[in-house]
């Protein structure tokens, strides 16, 4: 689906340590009937059972790209950012009715991308095999290009368990051939905010160097923190755009280019998605002085 079709549609409307996933998405793994919760503010849809700091309702800073993150597109994985193939396709359709998809390859050509209309960047974390085997075809069908933040030291590891089954370098290459970007997500997926500074640098810079050697400097410009945990001290290369999670505040990318907020479509709560997307769209249009950061 090309940009013109997206605009027309808008007009008509990861991690071995799963403790974080259990805390963030405890209810998302339940397959009981979904109900729409009551909220104190109709503009702020709340996911039941999720801590305030992990709620997805806050989107981007006004005028800046909405960034969504996923881990799996798989029929059997239970995780707060894992969707079935059908749900993933439906979620993309709903988001693309209100937001234009960004091509992440342009990030290597611009200082900081600032779209003129509500826009979304689709990202995946960790480098799981189902990203290639399942999500790839769905993204192709809707004409969306994404960033796949891969743990470069885990690529090629195979397992019968989807949460431990990673893409090979050849499969990453196939994504790049499709127009996607494969970028750095450390080498082994540690909590960067819980390890010593020396290892932080080895993990982060090592993965960035791995990506640069295979895919060039533009892809190496993008980085994502495992678990959204940003360490107090980290020296990323100048010009790096580094992405957090819902733990990061929504600020202009020019103000905090190495702690960019991402949010998510909560698994198991599809009835909340329209309200979330409406909220994200309003966030983009609320210009409360963001113009000065252009």
UniProtKB/TrEMBL annotation:
Ranges of biased composition (kind: Basic residues): 1-14, 22-33
Biological processes, Gene Ontology terms: carbohydrate metabolic process
NodB homology domain boundaries: 118-294
PROSITE patterns named among the record's database cross-references: NODB
GO CC annotations, alphabetized: extracellular region
Superkingdom, natural source: Bacteria
Chief location of this protein within or outside the cell: secreted
Molecular function GO labels: hydrolase activity, acting on carbon-nitrogen (but not peptide) bonds
Segments of this protein annotated with the region Disordered: 1-47
Keywords (A to Z) from UniProt: Signal
Subcellular location as annotated: Secreted
Residue spans crossing the bilayer: none
Protein name listed in UniProt: Polysaccharide deacetylase family protein
């Amino acid at each position: 689906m090309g940009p013109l079709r997206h605009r027309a549609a808008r007009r008509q409307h990861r991690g071995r340590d799963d403790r974080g996933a259990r805390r963030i998405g405890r209810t998302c793994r339940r397959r009981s009937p979904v109900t729409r919760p009551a909220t104190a503010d109709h503009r702020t849809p709340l996911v039941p059972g999720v801590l305030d700091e992990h709620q997805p309702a806050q989107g981007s800073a006004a005028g800046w790209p909405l960034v969504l993150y996923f881990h799996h597109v798989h029929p059997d994985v239970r995780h707060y950012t894992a969707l079935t193939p059908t749900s993933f396709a439906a979620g993309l359709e709903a988001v693309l009715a209100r937001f234009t998809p960004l091509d992440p390859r342009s990030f290597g050509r611009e200082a900081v991308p600032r779209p003129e209309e509500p826009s979304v960047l689709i990202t995946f974390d960790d480098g799981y095999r189902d990203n290639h085997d399942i999500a790839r075809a769905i993204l192709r069908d809707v004409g969306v290009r994404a960033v796949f933040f891969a743990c470069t030291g885990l690529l090629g590891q195979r397992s019968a368990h989807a949460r431990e089954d990673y893409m090979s370098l050849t499969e990453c290459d196939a994504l790049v051939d499709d127009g996607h970007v494969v970028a750095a997500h450390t080498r082994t997926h540690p909590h960067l905010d819980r390890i010593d500074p020396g290892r932080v640098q080895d993990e982060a810079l090592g993965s960035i160097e791995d990506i640069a050697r295979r895919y060039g400097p533009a892809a190496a410009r993008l980085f994502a923190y495992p678990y959204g945990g940003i360490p107090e001290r980290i020296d990323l290369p100048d010009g790096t755009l580094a992405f957090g999670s819902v733990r990061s505040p929504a600020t202009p990318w020019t103000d905090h280019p190495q702690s960019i907020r991402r949010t998510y479509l909560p698994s198991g709560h599809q009835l909340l998605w329209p309200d979330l997307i409406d909220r994200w769209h309003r966030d983009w249009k609320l210009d409360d002085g963001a113009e000065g950061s252009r």
